[in-house]
């Protein structure tokens, strides 16, 4: 059964997003456990990477240029469009915060399932995650209508736990354990990591369902905005990297389209305003469809 799930992991992501929408009480019950799932997935993903090769990729100028496109460029574009469309302050803050968000740590696993270079995707994911603290703080300073009162102790604690914690733990394990022992352990547990990925669309979409129950038309607006954001992130990255080849362009596109909104919320919390979680929930269905779309594009594009 597990092999079947792993083989068809991409459509299963869509199914879990839809299932979370249909079972909002279960989805909202799962939500408080998602930070622990996020930490575990980030740690296991980093453990599965060759540290020296990953550090070498992180030293590439191209990876950091991508992180600027992923956050700064898209923050400016999304913020400008939101201002032009007269979004209210809470929604404008939410869309810019989504643009500031780093890539989902499940992205390398998705890229691997597509047959692309997962190490490069991991380097881009880490780079965008490291840029996130600065990007989200700038977002709060520029877009919040009220004075930002950031609890610095809590902020840096969350950064240490959710970003630097998994990186440091992975580095120490690679230093202390023989690669052969670590490799056998990862080989045994790697099929189960995909089950962790399914928890995110399932647990996050519940907040969108709550909005749908309260105001269906507003929920439809949020869904359209969320789908537009995913499309913009995906298409812009693909266009910018198309000259470097189809594989690199599609890797950049799926990395840009996948947004680790839970990590952003775990770090900034209620400072992101009331519109962020419903928008993040609305993004789960179009986001979960991006890997399926990418696999199809890989087959038809020259």
TrEMBL record:
Organism: Marinomonas vulgaris
Signal sequence residues: none
Keyword Transmembrane helix included in the entry's annotation: yes
Key words of the record: Membrane, Transmembrane, Transmembrane helix
Chain ranges passing through the membrane: 29-49, 61-85, 91-111, 123-143, 155-177, 189-210, 222-241, 262-285
The name this protein goes by in its record: Sodium Bile acid symporter family protein
InterPro entries, per database record: Na+/solute_symporter_sf (IPR038770)
